[in-house]
Amino acid sequence: MDQPAWNHETIQLYTKAMDFAAVKHRDQRRKDASETPYINHPIGVANILTSEGKCFDFEVLIAALLHDTVEDTDTTFSEIETLFGEKIANIVKEVTDDKTLPKMTRKELQIEKAKTASTKAKLVKLADKLYNLRDLQRGLPEEWTEERRSQYFIWAKKVVDNLRGTNQMLEDSLDVVFREQKLID
After folding, report:
1. Is residue 1 one of the residues assigned to a domain?
2. Annotated catalytic sites, by residue?
3. What is the mean pLDDT of the chain?
4. What is the full DSSP assignment across 76-128?
5. Locate the HD domain: which residues (predicted)?
6. 39, pLDDT greater than 80
7. What CATH code is carried by the domain that includes residue 126?
8. 42 is in which domain, residue-wise?
């Protein structure tokens, strides 16, 4: 994949995105026992992309930092486009669920959309799933049952199966998780 070059402007945009996401998610916590600050999640997704996926495409990494802002805060796609450009806004659009739809519809759409998503969106989605699945392996979120956790793993594998052929390193890391959950041999 052609990866745009990093320079002082892209580094500035990346740090601007990290700050933007931190401000937008400032009052949010993950649903784990430690109530981890939510910003750890998008930063962790970007870290997975660079450390495990060897992805250094600044548009992908910025989109990773912003991937939950529209879904979980008052951020709009227009705001992201104005601040970070159309390409990054489009990646974020591709990975954002429409919260006006019922939960099961959103989950089914994630499975279907995974097949036709752009490569950049697929990268963000792979790293996001890997982060979330590892989180679930570490502990059960508050108000979750073991059955719900098990169903999440099964659903996430369906999404990931439709993202395959994007980044072998991330897919291999996901397969380790799926093997541990006995979803693959």
Report:
1. no
2. 71-72
3. 95
4. -HHHHHHHH-HHHHHHHHHH---TTS-HHHHHHHHHHHHHHS-HHHHHHHHHH
5. 38-133
6. yes
7. 1.10.3210.10
8. 8-181
